[in-house]
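seq as requested:
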Amino acid sequence: MSDELKNKLKNNLYEKRYIHSLGVAEEAKRLAVIYGADEEKAYIAGLLHDCAKKFTPDEQLDVCKKLGVELDEYAKLCIPIVHSFLGVEIARTEYGINDVEILNAIKYHTVGRAGMTLLEKIIYIADITEAGRDFEGVDELRRLVNKDLTAAIIKSVEFELKRNSQRQSIIHPNMIYMWNDIVLNRD
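struct tokens:
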């Protein structure tokens, strides 16, 4: 199944985005082994997490309207996250994915949510730590994710909150809910 998905995805994404998606799929599978998640689901969710990025941001909003994908007021203001919500519908209709765990991992890979499943956490962090990513702090996250998934997510959210506050950008409430949930329920 994954070869078929890869071929279709390769035809739908720009090469750079496709290579990133392959990297996330591999990182997600690797993390699934470490943390005991379903490797195949992790690979598929990682592969398809950006499947809606075949559309430009403006097109994503239009396609959401056409397909009836509901966006909350914050998602409409945080255009870079729209693809994660639209991605659920694209994964379902164009790639034949009906597994709720995979679809939710795609949906929440940008801003998370309270009560994230193991698979959702893996896709969230794999998108950040895959080998092609290069930003200040990524090496620290890569070291952390190999030892403590929760610590890596906390650190990644710290980076994101700091970046958004410096830019005076909107922070989607799901990220705040995720932060509070993880901090309150940390082992």
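The domain at 2-185 is CATH 1.10.3210.10 (Hypothetical protein af1432).
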